[in-house]
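TASK: fixed-backbone design
INPUT:
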């Protein structure tokens, strides 16, 4: 093992973490949620500028907390993608500069691989396994035969589930990000609104959220046009039942078909209490192990990037200083980048 410093800047969190032989020494995150909240979503240009302002401060704080100097670092890991291109550039340029100055390896990490491997902070991954990756920008089912072996078997055909939560929250007058407030209101509501289960014409494990989002928006607008009030609790419950139900159904089918030993949740929406409860309930008695990430790992952070960095360091998976970002990088291309 080695001392690895990791940088994450794919969206609206500037994060630096340091690990030493598997032990997390520091995990510092500067979030921009308060800035973007007034816009109802992340403003890419503002996010990039804030990353540039925050990166050196977060880096120094991580070094101070860990008691490690940059000379002690064996490698620098960084999120290469997917994400917002300007945001990714800030993190990558910082990592490349450090790698050049201290003559250390540079390790490119896929953001979603980080979310998956964050589960290693609470337990061992057991293969073959199914990863349910659900966030504001991504919704995928990823099958893994072994470490760093990713195969996408299902994905959203349009909107990510987290994006759908944010848009529905906005039309209901709830704060950004929308996942937590919808989850909280849903606990107090009943399924009284008739919402469609979107038709999916793609793969067996694919999902679709654009139609569901549009249905909620149209229903809310129509009710208001008629002068009728919207029961936010009931709408949140009705929406969450359908949105989360799609994920649970597809995940259970894939887990059975692929005969996995374990199912792991990953990404920001994995913090959703209803998703966690449903997965626990549906997998109980099946013999399939379920791993739920700690809540601190569901939001973007660099500790998860460092965890992947450790695996890639052992494989000597190092990139040159000509490495560029890729906002559309696919997770199954993680190990093919340097081929």
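OUTPUT:
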């Amino acid at each position: 093992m080695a001392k690895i410093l990791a940088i994450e800047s794919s969206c609206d969190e500037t994060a630096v973490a340091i690990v030493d032989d598997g032990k997390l020494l520091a995990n510092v995150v500067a979030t921009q949620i308060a800035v973007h909240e007034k816009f109802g979503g992340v403003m890419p240009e503002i996010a990039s500028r804030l990353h540039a302002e925050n990166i050196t401060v977060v880096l120094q704080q991580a070094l101070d907390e860990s008691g490690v100097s940059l000379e002690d670092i064996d490698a620098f890991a960084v999120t290469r993608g997917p994400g917002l291109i300007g945001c990714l550039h800030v993190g990558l340029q910082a990592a490349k500069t450090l790698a050049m100055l201290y003559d250390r390896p540079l390790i490119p990490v896929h953001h979603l691989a980080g979310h998956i491997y964050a589960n290693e902070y609470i337990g061992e991954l057991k293969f073959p396994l199914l990863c349910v990756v659900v966030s504001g920008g991504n919704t995928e089912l990823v099958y893994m035969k072994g470490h760093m072996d990713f195969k996408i078997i299902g994905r959203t055909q349009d909107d990510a589930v987290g994006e759908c939560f944010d848009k529905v929250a906005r039309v209901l007058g709830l704060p950004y990000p929308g996942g937590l407030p919808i989850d909280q209101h849903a606990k107090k509501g009943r399924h009284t609104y008739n919402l469609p289960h979107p038709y999916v014409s793609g793969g067996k494990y694919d999902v679709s959220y654009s139609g569901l989002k549009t249905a909620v928006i149209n229903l809310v607008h129509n009710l208001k046009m008629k002068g009728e009030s919207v029961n936010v609790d009931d709408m949140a419950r009705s929406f969450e039942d359908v949105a989360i139900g799609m994920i649970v159904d597809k995940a259970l089918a894939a887990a059975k078909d692929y005969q996995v030993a374990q199912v792991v949740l990953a990404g920001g929406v994995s913090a959703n209490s209803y998703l966690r409860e449903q997965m626990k309930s549906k997998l109980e008695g099946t013999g399939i192990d379920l791993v739920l990430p700690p809540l601190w790992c569901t939001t973007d952070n660099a500790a998860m990037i460092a965890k992947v960095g450790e695996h890639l360091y052992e494989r000597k998976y190092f990139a040159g200083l000509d490495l560029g970002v890729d906002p559309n990088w696919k997770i199954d291309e993680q190990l093919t980048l340097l081929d």
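COMMENT: The mean pLDDT is 94.
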